[in-house]
Amino acid sequence: MKNGDWKTMISNLGDFLAEKETFKKMLIELFDQSKLKLVTIDFVS
Question: Domain segments of the chain: what residues?
Fold first, then answer.
């Protein structure tokens, strides 16, 4: 990579891997804020 543009490199790598069918692309469902829950953990030493 001559110009040091890492964003272009990542994009090109993603395209390359998609062509090789290394991974399958799938749609991700939209974020539903009503499903969001807060979980807290308290560690007692």
Answer: 1-45
As a three-state string, the secondary structure of the chain is: CCCCCHHHHHHHHHHHHHHCCCCCCCCCCCCCHHHCCCCCCCCCC
CA angle, corner 8, sides to 5 and 9, nearest 5?
85
Q: pLDDT tens, 1-45?
A: 566 788 888 888 888 887 776 667 778 889 888 988 998 888 887
pLDDT tens, residue by residue, 11-20: 888 888 877 7
